[in-house]
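Sat 14:20. Reprocessing the chain from the morning session after the first attempt stalled halfway. Input below, unchanged.
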Amino acid sequence: MKLPPIAKYARHETRARLDHFKTSLRHAAKHPDDPVAIHDLRVSIRRLTQCFRVFHAPAKKMRRRLHKIMEHCGAVRNCDIALELLKECGLPESPSIALLKESREDAARKLHRSLKKERRKHHRAAPHPSHGLQIATHLPALAEDFFQTGDAAATSESSYQTLHHFRLRAKRFRYTLELFERFYGSEMATGAKALKGVQDHLGAINDCVTTVELLAADPIAIAAIQKRLDQRTRVFQSYWRTRFPAPKRNWWRQWLSQPRAEAIAPVKAV
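Finished this time. Tokens:
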């Protein structure tokens, strides 16, 4: 059956992200103690998962498998982040260090077993994409959701749960835009840079929140991390007000609603 152009494009993009995931999976399985390898695997999973959400609504089984790997990766990375933050706060001799290292070793063993198991599974070709996606309306709608959620998160009264919710929305928005990079010009690079800034600030906040949860019995370390958390929250709020004020949002709406249809043409069926 001959696929319509958008379906060809979807299969091409899915295949590329699936291949990158498999490469990252192999590397992380060989180097489970390498924080960079774990980070790269997490990012590849996020990009592949969002690709499935956009193009392959029925691919729930694969998404569940990816979610399990993410949980194991997250347990390792949380310990790495907590150790880094304690050093940044001038607490390299904190009594929590030994406990974090022990937890990290246990999490790394579980991750290694999970990755070895996943590597033995047969990854089939990219699933058949769903049809009917209208980029010119879908992406602007995602942008509006991003703006509204961001406004709620950037207030001084917002909870860390609200910030976490927005962090997930921001990731999905950015990784969705990446799927359609070929349809846009320089605006995409400018927009992606602004979104990465949001992710970086929210990630820094989340690192502090996660670390505090891991240090329940260390009041000195918690106080130091909480101070840094408050600083990072204020920096994010300032960044949001500067980069995403109401007048600048029309720029997003304009270019997202005008994709180039000819971008589909060079894509070959996979």
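The chain has a mean pLDDT of 87.
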